[in-house]
Write a structure and sequence with these properties.
362 residues, 15 helices, 2 domains, alpha/beta, 9-stranded mixed beta sheet, Spore Coat Polysaccharide Biosynthesis Protein SpsA, Chain A, single chain
Length: 362
Amino acid sequence: MSRPYFSLVIACYNDGRYEKGKYLDRLLDSICKQGLEKDELEVILSDDHSPEPYDDIVEPYLDKLNIKRTITDYNFAPGNTRAKGVELATGEWLCFADHDDIYYPDALKTVKERLIAKGEKHFAFTDFDGVDPDGKVTRKFTCMLNWCHGKFYNLDNLWKPCNIHFIKDLKSHEDIAICTQVSCALHAMDRKELTYFPFTSYAWTDNPESLSHAKYTVKTEDGPREFLEVHFQDYISATGNIYLEKLQDKSIKYVYAATHLAEIVLYCYFYTQGFQFRRPTDFLQETLCMSGELIRNIKKYLNISIEQLYQIAALDNAARYYEIRKLADPGSGRYIPKQTFEQWLELVSKMYLTEDGGVKSL
């Protein structure tokens, strides 16, 4: 019984409003140049309930590509859209793209050859570029695991049996939620090393004016708030909460969960210190309360004290602390910390959100 080797899910929205030759058709053009036979690749266009049609863009490719189409039940976010597309996937390997991105020539052919040569059965990843809306490379993403871009998931051996899924109605960080689930699943399989193909397969468009950024960024008189600050709960849901869930259902080991949860708490510290430094009078104190809730849950399910959580974070004599601070820079920005990590732990562990959305400290 034959089946496609790849299922490529493309999240789409209102592609017809863009200048022809710039977005979806540019991606479809790049897919035609992958060096694969038509039946080796199925392209799944998953539409986030667009009010504007783009059939005229898709129609010229129907003879060149094996295209399936689906639509979400309501417009909301990329995660829901990708999840709807996955429902139609029948290929051996699952991968994702956004409609304004591209694959480099023969990238998927190269990935297929390397997957077969390696004998990989679960997961592999590649490098990818960040490009501006005109296609100019602005950033190189090497060994990046956080996002769906440039990643390949085996449908039968990883995605389905391990229940990898997009969290419903998550406005942001849906890619990181997938990464967290995959990391936990591979840990449960006792995978010591991950399969990494050191070449650039993909170009991801880093567009600050994209729909997702424009739709979910809050603007104030002092300028827009940071995307991460506005959607901080999504970050916690996509990281710490998943580790806690996997710990509770015993699919990951205690030490693995404790190590990663301590790292997530460090990220929360760096991020909230950055929020507070940039906007000291009106930063969202809710982010401290969200961090506090995570810390209290960690204390409960790991059965540890604040001091023990601090010690877990400090196990490597602060080397990991400085590494995470550097990794957190894109979300936190440069800042002078208002509290030490130890002081911050004590402070936020006592902070709550009230039923009316206010902030309470015990």
